[in-house]
Design brief:
Elements: H1 4-18, H2 25-32, H3 36-48, E1 52-55, E2 61-64, H4 73-80, H5 98-123, H6 126-139
Antiparallel strand pairs: 1-2
Length: about 140
């Protein structure tokens, strides 16, 4: 998995906090610590998935395309993932008696871990993420 997923969550989290007020890609990139070009690539993927809307020009910026309670973190993951697997798999072309069996074991284990992660992402909405982040901000101001 590359950084696009974490950038996507960053974008969605900031846009949810703005409650419909547009935010520019330059500001989003600065708050994440990446270049506007990289951030715009992720924004484009989120736009293609119907998760954000972007208005160009003066006073423009991005907003959520629908209510944050209707967007799951799984949808964000699906919008930016680049391959079928999150975790790298053991190569299938291994040799010997033990290596192919070990490859199957490792690959099955990784597939189960991915399924668990995706199931968790499917249960969390952007609205819930916003609530959780605001709770941390009120309590201590930073993550542990």
């Amino acid at each position: 998995m590359n950084a696009h997923f974490t950038i996507a969550l960053h974008i969605l989290g900031f846009l949810a906090a703005r409650k419909g007020a547009p935010l520019t890609s330059d500001i989003l990139a600065k708050t994440y610590g990446t270049s506007p070009v990289v951030l715009r690539r992720v924004l484009s993927k989120l736009h293609s998935a119907g998760l954000v809307q972007t208005q160009r020009g003066a006073g423009g910026g991005s907003i959520l395309a629908r209510d944050p309670s209707q967007i799951t973190l799984r949808q964000a993951y699906d919008a930016v993932k680049q391959g079928a697997d999150i975790l790298n798999r053991h190569p299938a072309n291994c040799e010997g008696l033990m290596a192919p069996v070990l490859a199957c074991y490792v690959n099955d284990l990784l597939a189960e871990a991915e399924q668990a992660m995706v199931a968790t992402l499917d249960q969390i909405t952007v609205a819930q993420m916003d609530i959780d982040v605001r709770t941390v901000l009120r309590q201590r101001g930073t993550c542990s």
